[in-house]
């Protein structure tokens, strides 16, 4: 069967219009009907100028359009934007180097296949139009330059590449203070640190999100709540949030000099001391436990390389739960907290100081993975409501801490509850990005009195703040790039602003080299 030129013309123009409309909708966060409106406008223009019409001269040879590669790169950018809500070149580079196996983003993997197929079909449509209408053969050459020049993916890479000619490549390194403890308390306190996946303080705004944050607000009334904790570049994904809070530095990717024939990195940040290193030197037993695989994004390599005795994830814990009670990432949070309670009880009974770090999964974008106990407590889950999953996280965390407290397992223990980073794109995205955003950070126990500390800060300030909350003295109230929020020492963003620190980071080389010193 032969398809007529007119049919090919309108099919190609319609598909290109839909792709253009979808791209505008994703990048500009516009309503779902945007693609239809853009397509109608595109078809009207095509009809007016008779694009691909029978009376238009075809190209003399079947040349390939110059714009195919630029268009494909735009599809890559739109996929990243649609998946995560914002482009983070550092995250892309780090995950490619550290390893992306054992990730639970099945929905995004399926979406990736759909995007590839959509890009292929669009390339076919554009190729037909360019060959059918000689005018488009000329226009698309200019279009290809435009697509390359304004692709945020390439723009981000060019900003990082420009650092090789920058004359101030040590700005952050000059302000880095190697973490050090100069005086310890008489009795070493324990540490319980709970990272809540993507559960930022922004959700406490009841006007936008209702009462999904109420359990965390109630938990915060028992200790110190920190407000104004912003997000630096290179701290916006789970591994980066852990590095920022434990090492006092952003997770700047290793760079191509450390890419060993595209094999995963052998070590993660061997060039700096982190909280685990400091506590290990003082005889602490260190444990990390999470529902997801520790192979993903180099978590096992980071924790094993920085003083931890026990690192547990999906691979090590899955045999302790029913096979039918696992999500795409791993264990549900109610299961994780039950196992964590057993582990903490054994650590407590050992009489040796310990630090326990845990990571939740319930609020992982785009829709979350609420636990079965949350369904019993909150009612049915519609499968897409992130606010349901955020509320689930808060309730589970508060319930977990209450259980430990009732058992007397939190005596002489500092409890830290924080988000790992600001949420990536989810079903509440438009409300999340409508106003100023902040990370969650609160500390309870170990003699801390309830108060609210509101200061411009970032997650790199958590390390010195935790050390001082545990009773350790550190030089000038500083560690890494951070300053203790209990002190009068100004933070980097108080002194220079968030935008300025981010701008300096794009030109930084020496701190990056320090972080990865020793990696081949």
Automatic annotation (TrEMBL):
The answer to whether keyword Transport applies is no
Source organism per UniProt: Salinicola rhizosphaerae
Q: Which CDD domains match?
A: LTA_synthase
Designated name of the protein: Sulfatase N-terminal domain-containing protein
For this protein, the parts annotated as crossing the membrane are: 63-80, 110-130, 142-159
**Where in or outside the cell?**
Cell membrane
Topological type in the membrane? Multi-pass membrane protein
Key words, A-Z: Cell membrane, Membrane, Transmembrane, Transmembrane helix
InterPro entries given in the database record: Alkaline_phosphatase_core_sf (IPR017850), OpgB/LTA_synthase_biosynth (IPR050448), Sulfatase_N (IPR000917)
* UniProt main location, coarse: membrane
Domain named Sulfatase N-terminal is located at 189-472
One Pfam annotation reads Sulfatase
């Amino acid at each position: 069967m032969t398809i007529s030129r007119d049919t090919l013309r309108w099919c190609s123009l319609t598909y290109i219009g839909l792709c253009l409309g979808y791209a505008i909708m994703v990048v500009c966060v516009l309503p779902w009907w945007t693609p239809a409106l853009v397509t109608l406008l595109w078809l009207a223009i095509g009809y007016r100028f008779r694009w691909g019409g029978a009376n238009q001269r075809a190209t003399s040879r079947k040349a390939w359009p110059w714009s195919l590669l630029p268009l494909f790169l735009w599809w890559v950018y739109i996929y990243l934007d649609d998946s995560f809500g914002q482009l983070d070149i550092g995250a892309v580079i780090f995950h490619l180097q550290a390893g992306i196996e054992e990730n639970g983003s099945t929905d995004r993997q399926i979406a990736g296949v759909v995007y590839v197929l959509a890009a292929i079909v669009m390339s076919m449509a554009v190729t037909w139009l360019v060959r059918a209408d000689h005018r488009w053969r000329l226009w698309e050459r200019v279009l290809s330059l435009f697509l390359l020049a304004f692709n945020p993916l390439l723009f981000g890479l060019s900003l990082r590449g420009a650092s090789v000619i920058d004359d101030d490549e040590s700005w952050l390194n000059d302000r880095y203070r190697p973490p050090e403890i100069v005086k310890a308390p008489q009795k070493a306190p324990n540490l319980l640190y709970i990272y809540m996946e993507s559960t930022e303080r922004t959700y406490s705004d009841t006007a936008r999100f209702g009462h999904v944050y109420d359990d965390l607000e109630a938990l915060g009334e028992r200790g110190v709540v920190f407000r104004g904790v912003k997000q630096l570049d290179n701290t916006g994904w789970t591994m980066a949030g852990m590095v920022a809070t434990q090492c006092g530095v952003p997770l700047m990717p290793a760079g191509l000099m450390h890419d060993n024939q595209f094999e995963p990195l052998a070590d993660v940040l061997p060039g700096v001391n982190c909280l685990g290193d400091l506590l290990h030197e003082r005889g602490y037993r260190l444990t990390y436990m999470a529902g997801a695989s520790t192979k993903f994004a180099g978590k096992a390599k980071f924790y094993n390389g920085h003083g931890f005795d026990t690192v547990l994830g999906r691979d090590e814990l899955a045999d302790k739960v029913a096979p039918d009670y696992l999500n795409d990432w791993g264990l549900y949070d109610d299961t994780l907290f039950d196992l964590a309670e057993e582990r903490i009880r054994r650590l407590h009974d050992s009489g040796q100081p310990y630090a326990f770090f845990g990571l939740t999964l319930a609020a992982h974008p785009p829709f979350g993975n609420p636990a079965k106990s949350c369904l019993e407590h909150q009612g049915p889950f519609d499968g897409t409501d992130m606010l349901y999953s955020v509320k689930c996280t808060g309730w589970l965390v508060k319930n977990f801490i209450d259980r430990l407290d009732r058992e007397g397992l939190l005596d002489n223990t500092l409890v830290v509850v924080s988000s790992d980073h600001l949420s990536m794109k989810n079903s509440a995205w438009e409300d999340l990005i409508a106003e100023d955003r902040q990370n969650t950070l609160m500390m309870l126990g170990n003699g801390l009195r309830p108060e609210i500390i509101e200061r411009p800060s970032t997650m790199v300030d958590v390390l010195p703040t935790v050390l001082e909350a545990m009773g350790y003295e550190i030089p000038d109230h500083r560690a890494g790039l951070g300053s203790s929020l209990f002190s009068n020492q100004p933070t980097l963003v108080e002194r220079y602003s968030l935008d300025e620190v981010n701008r300096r980071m794009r030109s930084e080389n020496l701190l990056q080299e320090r972080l990865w010193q020793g990696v081949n």
